[in-house]
Amino acid sequence: MSMKKKSTGEKLSPMELEIMQSLWKLKAASIREVQESLPEKRQVEYTTVQTIVYRLEKKGAVRRAKKIGNAHIFEPTVTKKSAIGSIVDDFLSLFGGSAEPVMLHMAESGKLSLEDLKALEDAIKQTQGKKGGENE
Question: Does the keyword Transcription apply (predicted)?
Answer without folding.
Answer: yes
